[in-house]
């Protein structure tokens, strides 16, 4: 079995969709609020029988592949990997038609990992010393593939060239910098730095983060691979590939600010740790983590910058419907998780276990600056916290936040609700990306859908549909084929999707109909289609008549035809 067929057989569309939205059983199918557009009544229908999900509001959805491509915004090959991962299917046997750009970049990166690693052993004295001072074990350095980028403008580049990669590939991977497109002058991006590979969810190296070793140099402390076809900063989470199983097992993820904090935590046996790499999580990253758990624990530096960074991250979580907790590092145990772990790992682990609810974090932090019991502070605190709590997308959570805030300030809850409503929602909520496009199905679509869904109906109505001609070529072909063979054959994949989606709509609309009611419905549809066809014919005859005003013989023929149509039209209406 090829991997695509195997994935289709092993990954259930309903299970898959359930990971993103809440579903409700309705008849043979399930309904959910569409994950692709904002709506109040569910128009997203999932059919386990047909193995498709489709939104009748915005038209998005499809089979498991299409769904993942749209919901995760990835291309087919990425979706294939995500689904293979889920189904525990190895993709090794797949031979890609051609080594594309991305594959080449993976290869360059992998070669660079090896090169940097050897450089660390052979020439990286300064880097080695730094790592020793930090106290990392040899196993940790090997596990994370720590390396050293030599103090040179072209050693890395020349090495990669000698291994058969070309200039374009090396520049595209972000390992070397070209001054401009045509420039012959090329230099290594990472020079005299400690380098740490950054891997994607599948454990493939997609880029690097590099730390300054020369404390005197006036350069950025960390530099990263720029955006490349593989390295999308907003979608990557450091160490998630190693930590994902443990995150699932513990149903919690610990998020640090610095990559090395995460490495240290890992060294101390904390397996469910990842890192934001110094910036706030983006919505895509929140979504990615939510695939594994909804319990986020932020464990940032104990200084003012760490507190501000924590706040930024919490707000991203609110929008992503996650209620995070905050780890408060024990006092006098160091400025960051790394220091704290090395000083006293037991009390660090205690702090993890005692992570506080985000509301308690906000209240404790503000209490250090403003006494909530002083009258003049109550308003200040409200002004600071309400805009933050307004971002909580879950209404129940938001309500809880107001209740706790009222308690904290020792005031009633009602005025807080009034103030909250004053904060304009429009500024906070992301714009809808898709314009809902509710489309009514034509009679012809419904008719074909009914006949496919209920083959019994076909026998009962065979005579009535024998003369019927549908204006849509595809639907007409379907109708004729159903008449002749009782089923549809030789559909293209796209056509098959169309039919499945029609089937979903039929289930939704006619699922509760008995056979008599269905036959009546088919009659009604056929009548409607015939009338439509007649009207169209009449319309075109009138047009023709206008064009042959001079030709009396032709006019006479057209008029005759027209009155014949009127007569048969009456017959249609009668039936
Ligand atoms: Zn939709």
Find the structural class using helix and strand composition.
Answer: alpha+beta
Strand order of the largest sheet: 1-2-3-4-5
- Can you tell me the residue ranges where pLDDT is under 50 for at least 5 consecutive residues? 426-438
Distance between the termini: 52 Å
Which small compounds were modeled alongside the protein? zinc ion
Helix content range of the residues, please? 40-55%
Mean pLDDT: 87
Counting structural domains, the number is 5
Count of helix runs: 25
The total beta strand count reads 16
**Biggest sheet record:** 5 strands, antiparallel
The Rg value, from CA coordinates, equals 32 Å
Q: What does it look like?
A:
With 575 residues, the protein is an alpha+beta fold. The chain folds into five domains: 3-87, DNA Primase, Chain A, CATH 3.90.580; 101-231, DNA primase, catalytic core, N-terminal domain (DNA primase DNAg catalytic core, N-terminal domain, Alpha-Beta Complex), CATH 3.90.980; 240-364, Dna Topoisomerase Vi A Subunit, Chain: A, domain 2 (3-Layer(aba) Sandwich); 370-422, no CATH class; 443-574. Helix 13 (304-319) links the parallel strand 14 (296-299) and strand 15. The longest helix has 33 residues, at 515-547. The protein is globular and about 100 Å long. Residues 426-438 have low confidence and may be disordered. The structure holds zinc ion. Zinc ion binds at residues 34, 36-37, 44, 55, 57-58, 60.
Short recap of the structure:
This protein is an alpha+beta fold and 575 residues long. It is built from 25 helices and 16 strands.
